[in-house]
Amino acid sequence: MDTKLKVGVIGATGMVGQRFLCLLENHPWFEVVVVAASKSSAGLTYEEAVKNRWKMASPLPDKFKKLVVKDASEVEEICNMVDFVFCAVSLSKKETKLLEEEYAKHETPVVSNNSANRNEPDVPVIVPEINSDHAKIIEVQKKRLGTKRGFIAVKPNCSIQSYVPPINALMEFEPELILACTYQAISGSGKTFKEFPEIIDNVIPFIDGEEEKSENEPLKIWGSIEDGKIVNATNPVITTQCIRVPVSDGHLAAVFVNFKKKPTKEQIIEAWENYKAPEIVLNLPSAPKKFLHYFEEPNRPQPNLDRDYENGMGITMGRLREDKVYDYKFVGLSHNTLRGAAGGGVLSAELLTAMGYITAK
């Protein structure tokens, strides 16, 4: 790409917004020119706005320190400065939905980390390695919004990344029933241990709204475009339990699955190890070279050891074995703020750029 696309990060002061900036610091295609947040941060330099609130292990990139934070509600002004935006705001679902639509109606594509628009039948929920073809629905969405280039695309919930990609690689065996218990890191709540003392020496067996998203969003990802909308798949049936655990980063899932055509253990591992993303995805800057990796060791994967596999953009599995109730059970792991949040958003934006949906204004 000869000239970098100009990018805005909306919700730049939160944990996911900070992760976006770290990933975009030296991106070959994208250049951050706008950081935006709530009115309380507007007018401050980014360094002032996140003072004592920087949550990343790496230092705040120098290139963003002096950027003046914009008010995220100043849509027209921001849209005049950028080619597209990433959105990671902390607003109500209704407010988020309206804000994202306003950016899109100002002819600015929105790649969202939020859940507000995930249920819209003409908004693609994209995992590039799985359903890049769903980007086609954007043309239908643009007609609804009355836009020429503005649209909304979203990445799915962070919790499903640890089990949907491994199951997707096994679709030829027709999975029918999935039970997934997810053990989710505190960064999924946007907090560090310092900000979340009640999690120390504790497990919290409730994450608001997480189970509904974890059970329904995979069916949209596995759905099909029919009559101008994405129709959810009806199989497999998914049930989940989502639990917050005292881990900084990395969502672990204990997964149980029944198949219509039960494979052998060797066939499952072979399908995982040989899974290949579409060529257009493999050539993207943030794409993992190898999406799925199976550990033979009985005590892997572990968040502390394995969440950064493929720069946090790959999925790791282990402990595959036959089960007394289900056909098989295994453990999956994904990095929730990389693959599950900002990294997944950057990869989706790269895909949409490569496909011609995101262009310079």
Architecture overview:
This is Aspartate-semialdehyde dehydrogenase. The protein is α/β, with parallel strands linked by helices. The chain folds into two domains: 5-157 and 342-354, Rossmann fold, CATH 3.40.50; 159-335, Dihydrodipicolinate Reductase, domain 2 (2-Layer Sandwich). It is 27% helix and 22% strand. The protein is built from 13 helices and 14 strands. It has a six-stranded parallel beta sheet with strand order 3-2-1-4-5-6, with helices on both faces. Strands 10-7-11-14-13-12 form a six-stranded mixed beta sheet. It has a two-stranded antiparallel sheet with strand order 8-9. α5 links the parallel β4 (84-87) and β5. The longest helix is centred in the C-terminal third of the chain and has 17 residues, at 338-354. The chain is globular and about 60 Å long. It starts with a strand and ends in a 7-residue tail after the last helix. The model has no long low-confidence stretch (mean pLDDT 97).
What topology does this entry show?
Blueprint: E1 5-10, H1 15-24, E2 30-37, H2 46-49, H3 62-65, E3 70-71, H4 75-79, E4 84-87, H5 93-105, E5 110-112, H6 128-131, H7 138-145, E6 152-154, H8 164-168, E7 175-184, H9 210-221, E8 224-226, E9 229-231, E10 237-244, E11 251-259, H10 265-273, H11 279-282, E12 292-295, H12 303-306, E13 315-322, E14 328-334, H13 338-354
Parallel strand pairs: 1-2, 1-4, 2-3, 4-5, 5-6, 7-10, 12-13
Antiparallel strand pairs: 7-11, 8-9, 11-14, 13-14
Brief write-up:
The chain has helices at 15-24, 46-49, 62-65, 75-79, 93-105, 128-131, 138-145, 164-168, 210-221, 265-273, 279-282, 303-306, 338-354, and strands at 5-10, 30-37, 70-71, 84-87, 110-112, 152-154, 175-184, 224-226, 229-231, 237-244, 251-259, 292-295, 315-322, 328-334. With 361 residues, the chain is an alpha/beta fold.
